[in-house]
Fold:
Amino acid sequence: MKAEKIISAFFNVKNIKNIAQQKTLSYSIIMIKQIKIKDYILIDELSANFHCGLNVITGETGAGKSILISAIDLAFANRVSKDVIKTGCEKSIIELTIENNKHNLKNIFEENGIDDFGNEIILTKEITQNGVRTRVNGTLVNQDFIKNLRSIFLDIHSQHQTYSFLQPKYHITLLDTYAKDVYGQKLEEYKSLYQEYTNLKAQLEKAKNSADITESQLEFLQFQVNEIESAEIQSPTEDEELNAELEVLENAEKLKELTGSSYWAINGDDGSILEGLSKIKQNVTKAASFDEKLNEVEQNLIECIENLHEISSELRNYSQNLDNDTERLNEIQERLFLLDKLKRKYGGSIEEVLETHKKLSEELSSIEFSTKNIEELEELIKNAEKNLLEKAREISEHRQNYANVLSVYIQERLTKLELPKARFEITIREKALSNDGIDDVEFLISTNVSEDLKPLAKVASGGEISRVMLAIKSIFAQTDDIDTVIFDEIDTGISGKASQSVADEIVELSKFHQIILITHQAIIASKADKHFYVRKSQEDETKVDVYVLTGDNRIKALAELAGGEINNQSIEFAKSLIEA
Structure:
């Protein structure tokens, strides 16, 4: 049955091919417009402008074709090794200019203090011996921002991702991503409920453990809480405040003597400071009557005398009111002794004592709660599990249906990619309730009539794996919102007619995506909208340069790819590929 019929029968959703055509017509995408690299691995400095369609990278084996792709990947990477800095240089710089004709990022940029450059985004990664800095439009950003930026437009398919796609644990994610518009919201709601369910189970486990506590342990816990509570601690700094008051009471006589003598020195009967200043003030006042320049001096003297009057009054009051309160002294000493005892038992400071009290109280409350509420928790868990199972079965039904759709689509793609006998099937087996539901999902394939379906990881040849990966990527590229897809040697292990089918598939994909790929196949390279050639030279030092090929230079590069050497026959073949 054709995939369109299956979709119509099961879901009443848009035909994916029509969606692709609509996207092709609008061609409103976000794409890598330019890359600039300086002092990166073997590159001194280069600048390359990419096409919105198919960009092909070729070159001799070992020439460093993956450097461009690794630089793009690194611009978005979380961790970057300083080993990428070119030998003898202080830092590496990678700058991407991204053309955005699709997403409105103005509000996101404003929230992060990033300047809006219209339809251009300039992403700069600077790697030094001491660290890494990432900027967007000149503003430093964190890695979460870059991760989100990458997720909305870039997908790099490398050998590592091929390995990931082969692992069954990723297959459920692939299926859910494919059908996210249908049951994605339900799956998110399920995951949120599952988190609540696991929290309830953790509470029950804690409650059961707490319920097993012995009576003597419970009594001791209650004693500790009561001991701290009975102290009625006023504040975290109560001991400091009491020590300050104790210092005053222990030195009351000395303080009384010092402040009293100071008062008499300022405002005594004979020979006091104020008496002397009053005479000086009289002289200055008289002098100011002859020269007004002394008016300010006179005013300052008046303020000084007034201030001294206030100071003397404060000293007198302090001295008169200071009592040698032995009762309060004993009271403070007893209080400090109690607080020191609590600090020795429950923490090095009053603040730690209060924190310990909080923890002990919570533990006591938890125990008292637990012994009463185990049955209540068990009932909540039972209801939550029932609810989760209902939702998981609903999601599982969606998965079963969409597994059929996706299986047919991938099988159709494999037929187009010269695997006409291939059978592809997505199996779903029930498992115990988990974070993603009750389904174990695995991709199975058979590429030969005589062979049974086997796990994807057991596909025999590299060429078959490459075509399976391309089929999967093509399907997902038409349903997701990613606009730039990068393939690092997706054509490994294929040749002949298979190369032509892969080339056709990539060309079709490039109609509504920006594609950047490394290839060893002349047939694929001939379809490029822009052809980059990577060359390594080893003279005084090893260097990698990147050239854009056009005209005769491109024909020669295709001829060399096709025949291993440039001769009349390979040249004619290269011309025929371009004209095809």
